[in-house]
Amino acid sequence: MDDWRPAASPAALARRAELLAAVRGFFARRGVLEVETPLLASHGVTDPAIEPLVVQGGAIVAAPRYLQTSPEYAMKRLLAAGSGPIYQLGRAFRDNEAGRRHNPEFTLLEWYRPGFDHHALMAEVAELLELCLGRAGWRKVSYGDLFREHLDLDPHRASTAALAALARAELDTGGLELDRDGWLDLLLSHRIEPALEGIVCVHGYPASQAALARIDASGPVPVAERFEFYVDGLELANGYHELADPAEQARRFAADNASRRRRGLAERDPDPRLLAALEAGLPPCSGVALGFDRLVMAAIGAASLEEVLAFPWERA
Q1: Which of 208, 216, 218, 197 is CA-nearest to residue 141?
Q2: Which alpha helices (H) appear in the chain, and where do they start and end?
Q3: Pairing between β-strand 53-55 and β-strand 40-41 as defined by DSSP bridges
Q4: What is the pLDDT of the chain when averaged over all its residues?
């Protein structure tokens, strides 16, 4: 048995350590407080696309506890309690996610900026990426313009049938049947993302993909105040101008569970402490989650997460 050895090289692990220090220095210079929140919590996310790892059994863990897929809910409780700007650099967990760019246990950098809208936070994310990657310059492009540029298609107005027809013409979809957002995601991930070069920020996603972001209804079509960052086609970060309305958040939790039922997935109870924190008052803020392992991949030019993890899933 030789898999006791680390998968990553000593040089990769040294670069990883340098980037951890660089990230902490970046936030220390800006007065952003580092915090820690529980890895195991009484509630998980309702998002039908994300499955948590569940811990159950024993004298203490009598009821299920969820290894957190993100520290978002707990960090929003801190924000509502008056923490000010905060960040967290720690472990997160997701079931059914293993492969070249996924590991069920991973390191996530997440931070929140009271008083920032999503455009202000985009600029700060770009500063951090430029620092860590030693690269200058980034591009900001709307979701709609990106689809028009690469596929000559308006993603906000195209019908489900038109999206399906384009995907089937461009890709080997087999007998795949998806909803509208599913076809958009497929076209984005398989036709557009591989063509992205440099540091690219995509913003203005369809309102149906808002997740925990606010919706801007002031333009020709409503869009989510959400953004994602890519480096040479590798998705690194997902950010929101954060939703602060508890009633709307409860409605979205219910919509998530309705989607889970349609997909044959177990429902997830909404986190009552998060809703209570929103009732108490979440300050206007934006937040972002950045995959730190992928950042290391981009920094050293790695093709797989195994190159930047000491002991990936198969060796853990």
Answers
A1: 197
A2: 10-29, 72-80, 118-133, 143-151, 160-170, 180-187, 246-262, 272-281, 292-300
A3: unpaired
A4: 95
| Ordered structural domains, the chain, with CATH | 10-133+241-315 (3.30.930.10)
Q: What's the pLDDT band for 63 if we cut at 50, 70, 90? A: confident
pLDDT digits over 243-282, tens only? 999 999 999 999 999 999 998 999 999 999 999 999 999 9
H-helix segments, 220-271: 246-262
Looking only at the bridges linking them, the beta strands covering 40-41 and 105-114 are unpaired
Residue labelled with tokens 């040294």: 14
Task: Determine phi and psi for 191, rounding to 5 degrees.
Answer: -110, -30
Separation between Cα atoms, residue 276 and residue 80, nearest integer Å: 9
The single-letter code of the amino acid at 276 is: A
Whether 173 contacts 190, CB under 8 Å: no
What letter represents residue 160's amino acid? Answer: T
pLDDT at 260: 94
| CA separation for the pair 312, 307 (Å, rounded) | 9
> Is the predicted pLDDT of residue 163 greater than 80, yes or no?
yes
- Tell me the C-alpha distance between 200 and 230, whole Å: 5
C-alpha dist (Å) from residue 219 to 75, 145, 207: 31, 14, 12
pLDDT tens for 117-139 read 999 999 999 999 999 999 999 99
